[in-house]
Specification:
Elements lengths: L2 H30 L10 E2 L2 E2 L4 H6 L9 E7 L6 E7 L4 E10 L3 E6 L2 E3 L3 E9 L5 E7 L4 E4 L3 E2 L3 E8 L6 E7 L5 E7 L3 E7 L4 E6 L4 E5 L5 E6 L6 E8 L3 E11 L10 E11 L5 E6 L15 E6 L2 E6 L11 E8 L5
Antiparallel strand pairs: 1-2, 3-25, 4-5, 5-8, 6-7, 8-9, 10-12, 11-12, 12-13, 13-14, 15-16, 16-17, 17-18, 19-20, 20-21, 21-22, 23-24, 24-25
Length: 341
Amino acid sequence: MSTKKTSTIITSVAAIILAASAVVGTAAAQASNGNDQNGRKDQSEGRGQTDTALATAFGGVDRNTSWQQTSKLKLNFPTFHTEGIAFSQDHIFLSSVQIIEPTVKFATPQGGFDRTPGKGIGHLFVMDKAGNLQKDIVLGEGDMYHPGGIDFDGTNVWVPVAQYRPNSSAIIYRIDAKTMDVHKQFEVKDHFGGIVMDKETGHLVGNTWGSRRFAEWDLQGKQLATWDNPNYFIDYQDCQYVPQSKMLCAGITNLPQTPAAGGTSATYELGGIAMIDLKSHNVVRDVPFQQWSTAGHVATRNPFKMTADGNHLTMKVAPDNGDEGNGTEILTYEATVAPAQ
């Protein structure tokens, strides 16, 4: 063997060793930073997966908690009917449905449905932190045009897009929060109007129409569990993952007024927030929330997310549609709670 060939082989081996060292070093660096080898960082709204501040602080919330509205962020683009909200380090994500043709209820169910499919366009609006629209991602296929509650897992935004009727079907989408690449993860045979990723298991958990039922899937769409919601207080509209293996949801129930105030034809909006244990499937705490938007909606009507800094809670909501009141505003509420006993 010539000296030249020997030198070439040695150089190639050295390059392979260096490349392997780089991969190992990158994996180690990711691990030390709380990342897996795919670069996923264990965080929610910038917090580590093991940070249980939100679960602990929410345990101190009750009907007497004093929530103060501290800001309004007016969105200056057509937002239609808002559904879910999520926050990454650089962006605000807002899901919304644009109704082209409203659904119409049947006198009696037809083909297993209680109403027509209607027509619409599903949107995921991507904004900077000042609320300026940067991208409008259109989601959905055919009759599946209704985005629901969304969640950010530290890398991806998860969005269910369903038919606008119960007992129907939905697509689960994954959107890379940096590149905005859209991935159709899988389809499911029911209307799912909200979703979170359980970082303890790596599984997805969704809630159906009216949040009457939950389902758990692996990332290939295999259903691993399903359970009925034991609570009838509110219908959850938008949820988020909370370490460890919990989900925090907010929503609304429309209840009839007294006969003197119009009865069933004059409903009022009851809002609330609930925390659900994803292992036991129990609702571990739920509280009402009765503050109102510019258009007169209860604040937890649809988009909702909450963070905690110690025992100080910050909640962001966007209850008003684009054609109501002052248009869609992202409202911020804050409260300081006593630690739960």
